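User: New here, please read:
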Amino acid sequence: MNIPSLQQVVSAEEWALRCDLAACYRLAALHGWSDLVFTHISAKLPASATGGEHHFLINPYGLMFEEITASSLVKVDMQCNKLHDSPFPVNPAGFVIHSAVHEVRPEAGCVLHTHTRAGVAVSAQKQGVLAISQQSTFVLASLAYHDYEGVAFRPDEKPRLQADLGKANFLVLRNHGLLTVGPTIADAFLSMYVLESTCQIQVAALAGQNGAEGLTAVHPQIVAGVAEAMRVQTGGMGGAFVWPALLRKLERTDPGYKV
């Protein structure tokens, strides 16, 4: 693809965000979280770069996650209208979930949504996420559920999704997939890594079991005290603690995202 670079066209703030979001798409593909061209990761532009308007970056609809670059990302408003010339279409139906979250969570710098097999499998299990792994304790500290209402392209679903999400940073979309919310792209990515790992472990642990009765659960007191453990684990930095290492890995394996 011959995509003109936007580095000299947009602000330095926007370019840095574009590079991080393109990296996030490439990392999602690298970790096997993509679903062909479906699902989205959206990043909110800082108010200093938009004059206070709510503008977001989102994937050009039709490109695989491993194809997305900083310059191919599309800038949209809350109605998913394109705000700059781009040869790529956007998917307004796919933005319903993201716009719902951004609308009520002003601190949400990034919303990451996946349809992984493990995620969908756990979303279909009546008991939801089980406290059976260290990873699950981090998720259970800030977890919500939203019941399936069909393909999420109807705006009337937004109030119910918003109410279900509340202040949680992890959302299981029943019969559908997973979603994480973070103040930064790095935070949302790390949260999805933990949530996806939780689901993979749960699917593996339940394989061959007749329900969860044969599994060892984490004590509720440990789950209740996990917030402090999360802070200690990353030195209080959250996703910023691991993001530089992830970018170094991407530079070695897939460096074409910063164009």
